Amino acid sequence: MVVIRCRHLRLRLEALRLMKKLMQPERNIWERNLAWSIAKRVVEIEHNIGLGDIIELDAFDTSDEGSGGFVPEDRRIVAMNFREPPEATIPPRKKVHFYLKNQKTGEIMKREEHVAV
Known about the structure:
- 29% of the residues lie in helices and 21% in strands.
- The longest helix is centred in the middle third of the chain and has 16 residues, at 32-47.
- By secondary structure, it is of the alpha+beta class.
- The mean pLDDT is 80.
- It has three helices and three strands; from the N terminus they run αααβββ.
- The protein has one domain (2-116).
- Strand 2 and strand 3 form a beta hairpin.
- It has helices at 2-5, 9-22, 32-47, and strands at residues 77-83, 93-101, 108-116.
C-alpha cells in the first residue's frame, strides 16, 4: 500500500485521498474503512501531524520538512498488527500495535492504540 510504504508526506496525502475515493470493496483484501483508518494513523504518527476525515493537501506545509520531505528514521513504523478488542466498542475500533525502532538502542518499541473504523 503506497500510503504505508512511501515516506514523502505530499505523496502520502494524495494516495490517502485517492484511496478513500477509489477503493472498491469487492477488489480489496482489507475492509475499506479499516485500511484507510490504519493508513491515515501511520501517516499521523510518522509525520507527527493530525489529519481529519478529509485530506486537504494545501492544509499542510510540506516545504520545510527535513531530508527532502521524508520521515526521519526514528519515527518510521517498522511493523504493525491489529485485532478486535475483547469488548465491543462504539464507534467500532480495532486494537492496533505499531512497532517503532529506537535509533539509539536498536530496541523495537510497541505503541498500542485503538483506531476507529
